[in-house]
């Protein structure tokens, strides 16, 4: 209950301070708050994903495959079939990640 009260107090204080800002400074404050909120979301998402068994390994494998595609010499062009197979393999790995996420 004390935590809820502190939270409410902080919100009231923030609202009071925000009301005193110019429009330009208020726009900046909102951008900072949005950044903080997005950072918090990303931290929570990262914690959830890393708790999925083998997620980190799947992610590393996908990154390695993407790196290999990016580091391919510009004069070396893969056939349509090779590209399609690589796409399907990547898609399958991501589907597995999504399934594991849904099951966790």
Question: Would you summarize the structure shown here?
Answer:
By secondary structure, the protein is an all-alpha fold.
Overview of this protein structure:
With 104 residues, the chain is mainly alpha-helical. The chain folds into two domains: 1-51; 53-104. Helices cover 83% and strands 0% of the residues. It contains four helices and no strands. The protein has helices at residues 2-19, 23-50, 55-70, 80-103. α3 (55-70) runs antiparallel to α4 (80-103). The radius of gyration is 23 Å and the shape is elongated. The model has no long low-confidence stretch (mean pLDDT 81).
End-to-end separation in angstroms reads 30 Å
Order of helices and strands: HHHH
Structural class: mainly alpha
Runs in which pLDDT lies below 50 for 5 or more consecutive residues are none
Based on DSSP secondary structure assignment, what is the total number of beta strands? 0
Average pLDDT, rounded to a whole number, is 81
Count of domain modules: 2
> Count the helices. How many?
4
The share of residues in extended strands comes to under 5%
Radius of gyration: 23 Å
In one word, what is the shape?
Answer: elongated
Task: Offer a few descriptive terms.
single chain; 104 residues; mainly alpha; 4 helices; 83% helix; elongated
Fold topology:
Blueprint: H1 2-19, H2 23-50, H3 55-70, H4 80-103
Helix pairs in contact: 3-4
